[in-house]
Amino acid sequence: MELNEAARAAFNAMREGITIIDTDGIIVFGNTAYREFLNKEAGGDIGPIEGYRLRDLRPGARLPDVLEKGEPILHLTRQEVEDFYFVNLYPIYRDGVLLGGLSVVTFLDDAYRAREELEAMEARSKQVLHRINKANGARYTFDDIVAESPAGAQTKALAEKIAATDATVLLESESGTGKELYAQAIHNASLRREGVFVAINCANFNPNMLESELFGYVEGAFTGAKKGGKLGLFEAAAGGTLFLDEISEMDLGLQAKLLRVLQERRIRPVGGVKEIDVDVRVIAACNAGLPDYVDQGKFRKDLYYRLNTFPIHIPPLRERTGDIPALAAAILDQLSHKLRRPFTLTDEAVRLLQAHSWPGNVRELRNVLEFSAYLTPSGVITCEAFPADLRRPAEHDAALPLVQRVRAFEKREIQRLLARNGASLEGKKKTAAQLGISLASLYNKLNAPDF
To answer: 197-201 and 241-245 as β-strands: parallel, antiparallel, unpaired?
Structure first.
């Protein structure tokens, strides 16, 4: 076996020590770095080494073992006098015929240098991820959460306490109440605040796509998979927080895999064999009542209990009307910057906002105020600037006799509670208890001709 001049020049340019032997154990080539290593051990120049049997120069050499086994020997650690080094040994084949063996020696100084460079690269990556997090991730803190009503203040205080832990959190509330706002605030008040915040809505993906998004995949995992595979969100959020919105819509099979991740802190990419350790805090959120989903077989009971360690119920806006004036002021302040003119609400407009049931919660309130702001050049928003459907119940009720107004209010309250608790027997029992009436009285009201 012979090496041409180009191959010799390439090997001599390397910092690693390279040795090549033929099938008889005779040295065919030793690069400059390897000869310098031998000279240092001998205490002087030992001269040319090519043509000598390797074990005559180094009795303990392992490269001939590779010729006997025909398989590589990797990650050997060796020490000779003052030098500590690492060795990888490979058989050389051509067309299935063994030609010889190759040894690659990495010296300790080079290994340390490589480690330092990797650590520096990791530090730079963390800095980049931190900047990305601050720019695009968790922007909100608990200072951004308006909570002046007793219900709102109690929820905020509980979330602040839970944020200091590293436990999994379940945010339960109706749509539009600000679940991601709470998730970001919890992240920014936690020990993981310097890590990334990654959010995903589970309802936006089919089961296979969601699994790939969460756990990533290896190259060739499926048709259309990217070359080199893809990093999953559990890995991307390492050291930070992963927010799983609308977790109730996750496929049952994927729920089982998520449960294992929460218990074992390990993931397996799609199509992969090796498991990967992950260090992520999970915050989950749902609009639906998970206990009802568990009863219906749509959600795993064991996963629900795993998530429900620290549940936080964010009350809907209709249950914390005391927050509406401050919320409206904060939203109008944002609109003032956007539209470049100040906005205020009349007292009557505030009262009308507080009288509305807000099925869309804070999101609906924001939409109403933005609609009204665009139609109010003066900046003073009155009831007339609100959408017609917001004004209609109040205008309609005002024209009714007192008994009918009370009945209309009672009807809206029953409908509101049934929408939240469900129309099942258990939901009706819960609604009756919250209204302070018997179940029989609730059925009488529901069966009334004008209901």
So the answer is: parallel
Mean residue pLDDT across the chain:
86
DSSP state letter for 436: T
pLDDT of residue 124: 62
Question: Rounded CA gap, 254 and 399, in Å?
Answer: 54
Q: What is the mean pLDDT of residues 11-40?
A: 92
- Res 402: pLDDT: 62
CATH code for residues 320-398? 1.10.8.60
Q: Which class does domain 137-313 fall in?
A: alpha beta
Cα 446 from chain centre:
44
CATH class of 5-110: alpha beta
- Residue 96, Ramachandran bin (φ over 0: left; ψ between -120 and 50: alpha; else beta): left
Higher-pLDDT residue of 56 and 226 is: 56
Among candidates 232, 231, 244, 245, which has minimal Cα distance to 281? 244
Supply the pLDDT for residue 224.
Answer: 65
Neighbours of 60 (CB within 10 A): 7
Query: How many Cβ atoms are within 10 Å of 200's Cβ, its own excluded?
Result: 18
Q: Which of 184, 211, 213, 212 is closest to 197 using CA atoms? A: 184
Residue 217: which pLDDT band, with cuts at 50, 70 and 90?
A: confident
426 three-state secondary structure: helix
> What residues does 26 pair with on adjacent strands?
53
pTM of the model: 0.62
Phi-psi region of 362 (alpha: psi -120 to 50; beta: other; left: phi over 0): alpha
For 317, 409, 420, the CA distances from 434, given in Å and listed in that order, are 17, 15, 12
- Taking the domains of the chain in order of start, what are their residue ranges? 5-110, 137-313, 320-398, 402-446
For residue 226, give the 3-state DSSP assignment.
coil
Alpha helix locations (H) across 239-320? 252-264, 290-295, 301-307
Q: Which of 198, 200, 196 is closest to 131 using CA atoms?
A: 196
Helix (H) or strand (E) holding 345: strand 344-345
Does residue 49 contact residue 36 with C-beta atoms inside 8 Å? no
Reduced to 3 states (helix: H, G, I; strand: E, B; else coil), residue 353 is: helix
Q: Which pLDDT score, from 0 to 100, does residue 349 have? A: 93
- Decide if 5-110 and 137-313 have a common fold: no
Digit-coded pLDDT (tens) for 402-420: 666 667 777 777 876 775 6
Report the run of H or E that residue 371 belongs to, with start and end.
helix 361-374
Task: Indicate the DSSP class of residue 225.
Answer: P
450, 403 in Cβ contact below 8 A?
A: no
Q: Which residue in the block uniquely carries the two structure tokens 């004004």?
A: 391
